[in-house]
Amino acid sequence: MLFLLYLGTIARDSRGEVSGFRTGLQEATYFAEKLLTRIAVDGRHPYGRVMTAFLNHDVGGTWSSPSFKDAGRLLQENGAANVVFFPPGILLTATIPLVASVNCSVACKIVVA
């Protein structure tokens, strides 16, 4: 499984209102959907499943979804054995990507703890 992990952003503030400033939510969501679709239709990838999630804060309203915690719980419930984590959002900042391959029986428990 390939797990695309993005930095999350606030969708609605603690009052349920859309933020008065540009959070990048639309751009992040668009980029995530496009990349997920491109990978999914490319028969060269070796991953049985590709999934997107956002690493969010636990404060102040509603954040990007699905959250890393919720996605980790789903992986654990579905018995995922091996997962490759890739943070494609860093491609937007022109830094070197970090790819981590982990055994999900350990990492997914950490994510949902």
Describe the structure.
- The structure is a single chain.
- The chain has 113 residues and is α/β, with parallel strands linked by helices.
- The protein has three helices and six strands, in the order E-E-H-E-E-H-E-E-H.
- The chain has helices at 25-41, 68-77, 104-112; strands at 2-7, 10-12, 50-55, 62-63, 82-86, 100-103.
- The protein has a four-stranded mixed sheet, with helices on both faces.
- Helix 2 crosses helix 3.
- The chain starts with a strand and ends with a helix.
Name a few traits of the molecule.
single chain; 113 residues; alpha/beta; two-stranded antiparallel sheet; 4-stranded mixed β-sheet; disordered C terminus; 23% strand
Sheet with most strands: strand arrangement:
3-1-5-6
| Rg over alpha carbons | 15 Å
From the structure provided, what is the oligomeric state, counting identical versus distinct chains?
Answer: single chain
Major sheet size, sense and barrel closure: 4 strands, mixed
Q: How many strand units?
A: 6
Order of helices and strands: EEHEEHEEH
Report the helical percentage: 25-40%
Total of domains? 1
> What would you call the structural class?
alpha/beta
Percent of residues in β-strands: 15-25%
Stretches where pLDDT is under 50 for at least 5 consecutive residues are 94-113
Average pLDDT score? 77
Write the layout of secondary structure elements.
Layout: E1 2-7, E2 10-12, H1 25-41, E3 50-55, E4 62-63, H2 68-77, E5 82-86, E6 100-103, H3 104-112
Parallel strand pairs: 1-3, 1-5
Antiparallel strand pairs: 2-4, 5-6
Helix pairs in contact: 2-3
